[in-house]
Amino acid sequence: MVSKTIYPPIVDLLFSIFRDTNRRKILDLLNNMKLTADEITKELGISRPAVEKHLKQMLDIGLIERRAETFPTLKYIYSLPVHGIEIVSNLEDAIDQYITSLEEEYSRRLENEEQLFLLGRSSKDRYEAIKESYNHILDKLKPE
What we know:
The protein is mainly α and 144 residues long.
């Protein structure tokens, strides 16, 4: 029997936040500075209602914070609280570790397959197919 871990609903909400490219871009912007919705809209080049929807989703789970500034006019400033910075940082670290581990594993496997090929226990076609497959996966992991 396979053990199934039960996660609290917040996990699904966090995954949905990180699944969206624009929300990840907003988190990246807020990780570096405090911004208004207008500034975020300008940076992302998407509509103000779309930005506000993304901000509300992240505010609702406490991933970001909003505070009002009243001088010279009312505006809301969005930022990442300490726990938001930590979760973004931890996620980035985990992704980096995953990519490094995958690169090391694929390198090891490819070296083993190359040795088998050199010893005549594998074909060149098999070696090339495995190499192409691994490179295809690794290319997807590189930043754009």
